[in-house]
Amino acid sequence: MRIQKNVIRILALLIAGAIAPLWSQNVDTILVNGKVLTVDRQFSTSEALAVSEGKILNVGPAAEIRKLAGPKTRIIDLEGRTVIPGLIDSHMHAIRAGQTFATEVKWVGANSLEEALQRIHQASLEMKPGAWLIVAGGWTVQQFKEKRRPTQAELLAAAPNNPVYVQLGYGWVMMTPLGYKALNINSESDLPRPGKFERDANGKLTGAMDGNGGNFAVVALFDKLPQPTFEEQVAGTKKFFRELNRLGLTGVGDPGGNNVNPVDYQPIFKVWRERQMTVRVAFSLCGPTEGKEFDELKGLTQMLPQGFGDDMLRFNGLGERITWGMNNNDHPTPEQKEQYYQIVRWAAQQGMPVTMHWPRDENADTLLSIYERVNQDFPIGNLRWSVAHLQNASPESLRRMKAMNVGWTIQRANAASIEMGKELGVVMGAGTDAHRVASYNPFTQLQWFLVDDKNGGAQRGPEQTPTRADALSAYTMGSAWFSRDEDKRGSLEPGKLADLAVLTKDYMTVPADQIGTIESVLTMVGGKIVYAAGPYAQYDPNPEAPSRAR
Ligand SMILES: [Zn+2]
Prior knowledge:
The chain is an alpha/beta fold. About 30% of the residues lie in helices and about 20% in strands. Strand 10 and strand 11 (about 170-175) form a beta hairpin. Helix 8 packs across helix 9 (about 265-275) and helix 13 (about 395-405) runs parallel beside helix 14 (about 415-425). The radius of gyration is 25 Å and the shape is globular. The structure holds zinc ion.
């Protein structure tokens, strides 16, 4: 009798368990009447999506998804809009960009030099008298219809009473006389080495500093500029993440980089501690001091095991400048190579990912030989190692990378190299390398995949054009791989984190040369709306904050 009762009780529990998901799930939000690009294996499209407790509960036809709604479920009508998985930039210097975002002048998105100079002028009116006006990169000559750099006279006219600093990539800086005065630079010998004053065709000084090959002079000059206060850095970090949310980004891989030291991680740690992160960050560490890299990296990671952190902020190994000796060095000495080998061998032993800044294919053998040497002792196939940049990757380099399961973070790489990478099955994560050397806008980058704007917007030959699906996959699933997150995010599938963006235009059908104008009208991270505008403005958690770049 007793046994029978227990059996019945167990059966009842089993039945309840089986049917429970249909009605007892706490469904927070349902998105209906949309075009959901799931970026699953089949690149399938759906109408609707349900979010429960930060994750995707289900994706499917609207009628089916609607059935999951409970009395407290928020139902959002997409009115036909396209939804994509939150974009992930696999190589963005986001921690550094955030520090100065609240205090810098941005030239991102300026279509003319005239507009760029107007932004300088505007900033001179808004900021304290005598404050530095700093454009720390993030622009190219090609984005301006004038196709040229500013002159010193133009900057002076735009802001006669402020020191002005305008950096282009890592090779060139223009300052106004007040800038030179503030930094106490009176002659060429006061410039950081090996920088020199730029001269025009007639030998006349232009007012700019030429980095004279390499990054060193510009990095050192930037370091002389006054730093924003800690509070400004915290505010800048939040503001920058919100700006990324506006563009549909929900994740970045941060590769450390120039001018990033341990102290520079404190603002983002504060934002993380206060649970105000709206972009997931997987960060890697560089060796800060020349000659001391190995000791420093060992010290820094002593209490920072691989993977430490949470889904918002996670330690993800070493990169992108492991040692100074191998940084942008086409001909490292045997000692420099050995020092590098010792560090990455140790990283492999510790189970750490390594991502390495490597611009050119001509000497990729230097790097790949070291990876191969390590791979013999400590297989790296499961450690998510990668090469960043390598714009002109050759089939040979890509084959060697594939053989070790080394991924490739691509920015504006050659279309032919990208096609070859796809053919060989190399894991590719898209991104920008923002914000000093490039804009952080993922949509201008996606447009670039499909339309080569280097030649005045000329379409590539079809044989060299990745498909829209390829490009979006690289910006989502591809990038997720580098932080071992491909089972957690990068696609809109049941069980994955609800990171997504609702777009202003349909990425799949808008003319290719308009992809760059797409923005998000609703961005969700872990099921929480972090940015909303236009028809969804009522859902915006932070409507007071200015979201647009200046
Ligand atoms: Zn780099």
